[in-house]
């Protein structure tokens, strides 16, 4: 072999290897497995960080156990896993039939917070207390608003050039009732997420951009009214603008959140070694868990979270671009907008790009209602991914882990060959 042909063959092997990886990414099961990987990674990572961030809060609580919040989160993660698997097995046609019933149930549950069953936290009446369990119906409203948006806009696909067909029935009454029910509970954070969902599904449906102004003006006006009529929210705005820097007052949480990120430096103090969780930073396991991630795991930990959410956005984008079903496209865009925008709002508040609004980091922060409903929404995406051409057949053709494990056992292998 001449010396000149060796580099050429090496280059050919490298090109073939690169082509092989690109072919794998173009596989009909790539979106499905990417969603499975990102979801699993975020949930497991979230459980680890909730255990670390909540240990002191749990220890000083009524149970006197360092594991109480973690065990509750692990229980909800198990429930969410079951919900995710069940949702992933429902066909696309089933979700079309369930869209409106889910929305109706969600709005009814949300209105129940105004009854004696409702429970108020920090001025927001957005929870239902059912015995020892507290649930947040507005999380279910997000799911209903996404599914209903996909169903209605798909049905009106050919008439969406007329604003009246966009206005009725999706903006009014569906979006108006959904957002209005949450407004009555005074939860601005969830209202902003719902507004982002509406914008996401309308954008995916191809609504002209000029119409977003007509829908956006009253929504922005409502958000401003929320802020100016609430001393608590005005105080948070003053903190964000730098007019209030009292470390022991309203500015305590955002200041100590940045202290946590600064203490972590490049590579963090080590898992479990946070100082701010010892009573200095409020809600370290919930709204400000990203600060604890930065303090304990440093820049690599925070970047890992961002990469995982980027991977989720990529999987949703692939699903939107590869499907021919308008319902799947719009619903997927709505779920992607919900999760990504909520993550950006949470992280933006921690790093002081945004005022503190009070929304959890999806799949990572402590909170049973948020975790279960987000995993439910990801189960819907897995159902859509399974409907991609060739995906279900490829998944069915692959041997299960159990069958592969049994195949290496001598007796089982001979028995299977004898039966065949």
TrEMBL record:
<dbReference type="InterPro" id="IPR001182">
    <property type="entry name" value="FtsW/RodA"/>
</dbReference>
<feature type="transmembrane region" description="Helical">
    <location>
        <begin position="98"/>
        <end position="119"/>
    </location>
</feature>
<keyword id="KW-0328">Glycosyltransferase</keyword>
<keyword id="KW-0961">Cell wall biogenesis/degradation</keyword>
<feature type="transmembrane region" description="Helical">
    <location>
        <begin position="162"/>
        <end position="182"/>
    </location>
</feature>
<keyword id="KW-0472">Membrane</keyword>
<keyword id="KW-1003">Cell membrane</keyword>
<dbReference type="InterPro" id="IPR013437">
    <property type="entry name" value="FtsW"/>
</dbReference>
<feature type="transmembrane region" description="Helical">
    <location>
        <begin position="326"/>
        <end position="351"/>
    </location>
</feature>
<comment type="pathway">
    <text>Cell wall biogenesis; peptidoglycan biosynthesis.</text>
</comment>
<keyword id="KW-0131">Cell cycle</keyword>
<keyword id="KW-0808">Transferase</keyword>
<keyword id="KW-0132">Cell division</keyword>
<keyword id="KW-1133">Transmembrane helix</keyword>
<feature type="transmembrane region" description="Helical">
    <location>
        <begin position="288"/>
        <end position="314"/>
    </location>
</feature>
<feature type="transmembrane region" description="Helical">
    <location>
        <begin position="139"/>
        <end position="155"/>
    </location>
</feature>
<keyword id="KW-0812">Transmembrane</keyword>
<feature type="transmembrane region" description="Helical">
    <location>
        <begin position="363"/>
        <end position="385"/>
    </location>
</feature>
<dbReference type="Pfam" id="PF01098">
    <property type="entry name" value="FTSW_RODA_SPOVE"/>
</dbReference>
<keyword id="KW-0133">Cell shape</keyword>
<keyword id="KW-0573">Peptidoglycan synthesis</keyword>
<protein>
    <recommendedName>
        <fullName>Probable peptidoglycan glycosyltransferase FtsW</fullName>
        <ecNumber>2.4.99.28</ecNumber>
    </recommendedName>
</protein>
<feature type="transmembrane region" description="Helical">
    <location>
        <begin position="188"/>
        <end position="205"/>
    </location>
</feature>
<feature type="transmembrane region" description="Helical">
    <location>
        <begin position="32"/>
        <end position="53"/>
    </location>
</feature>
<feature type="transmembrane region" description="Helical">
    <location>
        <begin position="212"/>
        <end position="230"/>
    </location>
</feature>
<comment type="similarity">
    <text>Belongs to the SEDS family. FtsW subfamily.</text>
</comment>
<feature type="transmembrane region" description="Helical">
    <location>
        <begin position="65"/>
        <end position="86"/>
    </location>
</feature>
<comment type="function">
    <text>Peptidoglycan polymerase that is essential for cell division.</text>
</comment>
């Amino acid at each position: 072999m001449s010396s000149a042909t060796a580099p050429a063959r090496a280059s050919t092997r490298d090109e073939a290897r690169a082509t092989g990886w690109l072919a794998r990414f173009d596989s009909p099961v790539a979106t499905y497995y990417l969603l499975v990987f990102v979801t699993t990674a975020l949930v497991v990572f979230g459980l680890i960080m909730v255990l670390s961030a909540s240990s002191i809060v749990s220890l000083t609580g009524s149970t006197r156990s360092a594991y109480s919040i973690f065990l509750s989160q692990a229980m909800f993660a198990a429930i969410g896993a079951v919900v995710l698997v069940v949702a992933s097995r429902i066909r696309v046609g089933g979700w079309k039939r369930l869209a409106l019933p889910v929305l109706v149930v969600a709005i009814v549950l949300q209105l129940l917070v105004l009854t004696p069953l409702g429970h108020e936290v920090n001025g927001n009446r957005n929870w239902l207390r059912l015995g020892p369990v507290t649930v947040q119906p507005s999380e279910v409203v997000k799911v209903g608003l996404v599914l209903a948006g996909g169903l209605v806009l798909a049905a009106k696909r050919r008439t969406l050039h007329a604003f009246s067909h966009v206005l009725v029935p999706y903006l009014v009454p569906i979006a108006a009732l959904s957002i209005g029910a949450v407004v009555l509970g005074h939860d601005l954070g969830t209202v902003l997420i719902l507004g982002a969902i509406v914008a996401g599904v309308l954008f995916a449906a191809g609504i002209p951009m000029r119409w977003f102004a007509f829908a956006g003006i009253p929504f922005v006006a409502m958000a401003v009214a929320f802020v100016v009529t609430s001393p608590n929210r005005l105080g948070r705005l003053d903190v964000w603008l730098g007019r209030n820097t009292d470390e022991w007052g309203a500015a305590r949480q955002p200041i100590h959140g940045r202290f946590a990120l600064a203490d972590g430096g490049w590579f963090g103090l080590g898992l479990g070694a946070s100082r701010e969780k010892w009573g200095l930073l409020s809600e370290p396991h919930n709204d400000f868990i990203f600060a604890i991630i930065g303090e304990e795991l440093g820049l690599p930990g925070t970047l890992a979270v961002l990469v995982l959410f980027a991977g989720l956005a990529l999987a949703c984008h692939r699903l939107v671009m590869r499907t021919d079903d308008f319902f799947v496209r719009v619903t997927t865009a709505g779920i992607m907008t919900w999760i990504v925008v909520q993550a950006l709002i949470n992280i933006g508040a921690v790093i002081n790009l945004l005022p503190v609004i009070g929304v959890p980091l999806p799949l990572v922060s402590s909170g049973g209602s948020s975790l279960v409903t987000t995993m439910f929404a990801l189960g819907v995406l897995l159902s859509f991914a399974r409907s991609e051409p060739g995906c279900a057949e490829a998944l069915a053709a692959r041997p299960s882990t159990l069958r592969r494990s049994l195949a290496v056992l001598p007796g089982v292998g001979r028995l299977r060959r004898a039966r065949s």
